[in-house]
Amino acid sequence: MKVPSDIEIAQSAKLRPIVDIAEKLGIGEEDLELYGRYKAKVSPAVWERVKNNPDGKLILVTAITPTPAGEGKTTTTVGLSQALAKLGQKVS
User: Fold this and answer.
1) Which end of the chain is more exposed for a tag (fewer CB within 10 A), N or C?
2) Residue 87 to residues 25, 30, 53, 69, 82, Cα–Cα distance (Å)
3) Cβ proximity of 62 and 73 under 8 Å
């Protein structure tokens, strides 16, 4: 079985609209400055709404070089987030 390259994995990903992702995080479209369907800046007003919320937990992912399969910090972070979400943990 051939292991797909980084570029093959990236090209096979289905992009989700940023509005949908923001909505899942409780950020409304009125708080976004859209740059197309998949990118946006978040309004500083969002910070004002959440700055007094209790602190969450932070996991730092560090690495010097990726594995031979191309698994670097981003891949590890996304995989870890998906695994924690599947276990029912809040990851946003």
Assistant:
1) N
2) 18, 31, 23, 25, 9
3) yes
- Between CA 71 and CA 61 the distance in angstroms is 12
Q: What pLDDT is attached to residue 70?
A: 66
Instruction: Give the pLDDT mean for 33-38.
Output: 95
Q: What tokens appear for 20 in the block?
A: 């949908």
The CA dihedral of 70, 62, 82, 45, to the nearest 10 degrees, is -120
Phi, psi angles (nearest 5°) of residue 52 = -100, 5
Q: Reduced to 3 states, what is the DSSP secondary structure of residue 65?
A: coil
Evaluate if pTM is beyond 0.85. Answer: no
Distance of CA 48 to the CA centre of its chain: 21
For residues 46 and 8, what is the distance between their CA atoms, to the nearest angstrom? 35
pLDDT above 70 as % of the chain: 96
